[in-house]
Amino acid sequence: MEEAYHDGKIFRRHWKKPSTVIQVVKMPSCPPPPKVCYVWAIPSFAKEVHVFARIVSMRLKPNMTAEFTQTIEKRILPILRKQKGFRDEITFVAPGGMEAVGISLWDSREQADAYNSGGYSEVLRELNKLVEGTPQVKTYDVANSIAHNIAARSAA
């Protein structure tokens, strides 16, 4: 593990990718140990990133798991990929195949809202023959994600 100090904050490096050391300096502000502070290029995932999530829960009709996963892959993902601000979709199907959850990640709440009032109606039409009732949508700010390089926001 490497440590760096910047503006009184300690950055710890746990990842295995090599860092780019910009300079090695002795600084009185470095708490012991180390006696030398490493100043490296902090990767983008060490910075605060604002990402927004839509979580859609639905009840599948009986024996529709295979068709549901194919519809997600062939019909819904292409719709999502065309949306401005779309980052990723993760879909889960419960054991037994009666419940499913889709989590989509967006660059901003505004872009997710634009999708909700536009492209989402097309997604609902595709899902209509596969789900019972209306899918339930909840929205969240993403706090952490290793896969998407999102660091926790500082407490204000």
Features:
156 residues; alpha+beta; Alpha-Beta Plaits; two-stranded antiparallel ribbon; 3 helices; 8 strands; 21% helix; globular
Strand fraction equals 35-45%
CATH topology type of the largest domain:
Alpha-Beta Plaits
The end-to-end distance, rounded to whole angstroms, is: 27 Å
The radius of gyration computed from the alpha-carbon positions, rounded to a whole number of angstroms, is: 22 Å
CATH class of the largest domain: Alpha Beta
Number of domain modules:
2
Helical fraction equals 10-25%
Instruction: Supply the CATH architecture of the largest domain.
Output: 2-Layer Sandwich
Task: Return residue spans where pLDDT drops below 50 for at least 5 consecutive residues.
Answer: 12-28, 34-47
Overall pLDDT confidence: 77
In total, the number of strands is 8
What overall geometry do the principal axes of the alpha carbons give? globular
**Helix and strand element order:** EEEEEHEEHHE
User: What is the chains' assembly state?
Assistant: single chain
Strand order of the largest sheet: 6-7-5-8
Class computed from helices, strands and strand pairing: alpha+beta
Q: Helix tally?
A: 3
Biggest pleated sheet: 4 strands, antiparallel
